[in-house]
């Protein structure tokens, strides 16, 4: 998948990691851990239902093609199906365009969804602001978004990274912090609403989540990865069409996924798309007790591909905390040979866990001790990540802890591109 000058493939599987000794930094920042995050009540302002007959709600957009000239507009109506039409125009044009989409509903136990609409709007200009209107014929609502710049090797672009968000007061803080960042597209690393934590997986909590995230997701594309909290659902039922980014089943050894990835990776032309970013749900390099080693089955199969194809950075969620690895690999290990020590490897990606959105299950605070050498920085706090691609050689990554000011970077580093600038960008000394 290509966007701006970056490129990413998404995999949604379960995975994780391995042991070592004396690594990087364990933050001394201590968050107030006494209170578990609680979900915002159903009547919270964050879930407000837009007024008016059949008013579109849960409006969200995602990229409709690989380069950014199409956008899928999705929304839910509750009184009647209404229209699938989107009217849109660019800031500078005098002409309106229309596109038609499709509508469907689903049931889950005793829940019946609203009317879920998806409309792909096409032939968009690059780097252009568009306004769009949904709810034609009933109550209309207007939003806007800006398309990414045309793919180019040195084109700057800023991504946000959020995972395991849920819908607590902390989730709300994380989203507000993200909205105050300069992210133009959000990379979502799985586990969305946590509706399945409710009795009968109360799908009303998918609708509240859709209304909660609308204030960002209606204005910029969110690129989705599925997590384990999406597993027991049909992937479509949240009203989010995940199919563009996650076309694979996500449990098990999944030959399908392997075939897909081995077919996709060679297609990426790094002289055109300079950065290669992978999104997945469960991390491979994780030094928390939570989900420790869970990514091993996947890492063993896929890690050498990431190195071969010079993946720059891998973002994951799942573990409800923050962690960043050094560039390490452990691809000699095959379970029977006993070679099970991650080693410094400047051909390898940096692995970042951003499972810290703020869901009601709470933070993962138990860390393995001592901090393994693959782990450069770890902290049990909520927050979000920002990846600012500057040009073909440099990208700046930062992590914003949601307890601080909007622009405070609790962890940060310059990432050097593995294809164009494969120098050592370690932040701690590792053997
Ligand atoms: C949206 O439209 C674009 C342009 O026609 C097309 O390439 C893309 O496949 C469509 N996306 C989906 C998900 O249908
Ligand atoms: C639309 O364009 C006008 C100038 O033509 C500019 O002032 C305004 O900020 C633009 N709006 C957006 C949302 O880009
Ligand atoms: C385009 O559609 C919007 C919203 O329906 C409307 O306000 C505007 O007048 C239309 N512009 C043109 C040029 O038809
Ligand atoms: C669904 O079933 C549960 C459990 O019986 C009940 O608490 C809830 O009110 C029902 N919801 C609807 C919409 O009927
Ligand atoms: C709502 O919009 C649809 C689609 O345009 C239209 O067919 C329907 O008559 C409208 N409903 C009302 C009550 O106006
Ligand atoms: C995108 O457009 C803005 C003006 O709206 C311009 O300043 C910027 O350089 C453009 N970016 C690219 C990559 O073309
Ligand atoms: C959620 O955050 C928004 C934006 O900061 C704020 O307006 C709203 O009051 C918050 N809602 C709750 C329930 O915290
Ligand atoms: C966003 O970018 C502006 C302009 O470069 C900068 O002043 C501001 O601090 C940035 N915001 C954050 C949260 O980094
Ligand atoms: C969205 O999901 C539906 C239902 O699975 C599917 O038929 C449709 O092709 C998807 N649309 C897009 C735009 O991906
Ligand atoms: C594991 O790796 C060793 C070499 O390090 C090799 O001899 C052995 O066949 C491999 N086993 C499996 C199951 O791939
Ligand atoms: C952390 O680990 C310790 C020792 O295994 C255990 O007693 C404790 O319950 C764990 N705490 C949490 C919050 O999981
Ligand atoms: C790439 O970006 C980095 C960081 O902003 C900058 O130091 C470097 O000079 C840039 N490279 C080129 C060729 O402009
Ligand atoms: Fe998870």
TrEMBL record:
The keyword Iron applies. Its EC number is 3.1.3.2. Residues 56-147 form the Purple acid phosphatase N-terminal domain. Pfam families: Metallophos, Metallophos_C, Pur_ac_phosph_N. Residues 348-405 form the Purple acid phosphatase C-terminal domain. CDD domains: MPP_PAPs (cd00839). Its cofactor is Fe cation; Zn(2+). Residues 158-322 form the Calcineurin-like phosphoesterase domain. InterPro entries: Calcineurin-like_PHP, Metallo-depent_PP-like, MPP_PAP, PAPs-like, PAPs_C, PAPs_N, Purple_acid_Pase-like_N. Residues 1-23 form the signal peptide. It catalyses: a phosphate monoester + H2O = an alcohol + phosphate. Transmembrane segments: none annotated. Belongs to the metallophosphoesterase superfamily. Purple acid phosphatase family. This is Purple acid phosphatase. It comes from Lupinus luteus.
């Amino acid at each position: 998948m290509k966007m701006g000058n970056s490129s990413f493939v998404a995999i949604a599987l379960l995975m994780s990691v391995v042991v070592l000794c004396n690594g990087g930094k364990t933050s001394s920042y201590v968050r107030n851990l006494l209170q578990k995050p609680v979900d915002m009540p159903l009547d919270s302002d964050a879930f407000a239902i837009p007024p008016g007959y059949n008013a579109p709600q849960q409006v969200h957009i995602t990229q409709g093609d690989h380069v950014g000239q199409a956008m899928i507009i999705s929304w839910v109506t509750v009184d009647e199906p209404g229209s699938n039409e989107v009217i849109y125009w660019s800031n500078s044009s005098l002409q309106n365009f229309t596109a038609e989409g499709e509508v469907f509903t689903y049931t889950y136990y005793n829940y019946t969804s609203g009317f879920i609409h998806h409309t792909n709007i096409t032939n968009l200009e690059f780097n252009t602001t568009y306004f769009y209107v949904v709810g034609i014929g009933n109550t209309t609502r207007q939003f806007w978004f800006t398309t990414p710049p045309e793919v180019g090797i040195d084109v700057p672009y800023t991504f946000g990274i959020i995972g395991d968000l849920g819908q607590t007061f902390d989730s709300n803080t994380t989203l507000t912090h993200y909205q105050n960042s300069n992210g133009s597209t959000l990379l979502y690393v799985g586990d969305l609403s946590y509706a399945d934590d409710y009795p009968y997986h109360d799908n009303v909590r998918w609708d509240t989540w859709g209304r909660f995230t609308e204030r960002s997701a209606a204005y910029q594309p969110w690129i989705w990865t599925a997590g384990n909290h999406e597993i027991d659902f049909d992937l479509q039922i949240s009203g989010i069409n995940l199919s563009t980014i996650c076309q694979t089943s996500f449990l098990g050894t999944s030959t399908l996924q392997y075939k897909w990835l081995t077919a996709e990776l060679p297609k990426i032309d790094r002289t055109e798309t300079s950065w290669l970013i992978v999104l997945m749900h469960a991390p491979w390099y994780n030094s928390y007790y939570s989900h420790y080693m869970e990514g091993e089955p996947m890492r063993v199969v896929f890690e050498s591909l990431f190195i071969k194809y010079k993946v720059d950075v891998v973002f994951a969620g799942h573990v409800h905390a923050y962690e960043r690895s050094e560039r390490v690999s452990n691809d000699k290990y095959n379970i029977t040979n006993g070679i099970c020590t991650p080693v410094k490897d400047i051909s390898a990606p940096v692995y970042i866990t951003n499972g810290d959105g703020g869901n009601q299950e709470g933070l993962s605070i138990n860390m393995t001790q001592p901090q393994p050498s693959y782990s450069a920085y770890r902290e049990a706090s909520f927050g979000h990540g920002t990846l600012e691609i500057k040009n073909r050689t440099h990208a700046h990554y930062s992590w914003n802890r949601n307890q601080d000011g909007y622009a405070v970077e609790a962890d940060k580093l310059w990432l050097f591109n593995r294809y164009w600038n494969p120098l050592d960008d370690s932040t701690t000394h590792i053997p």
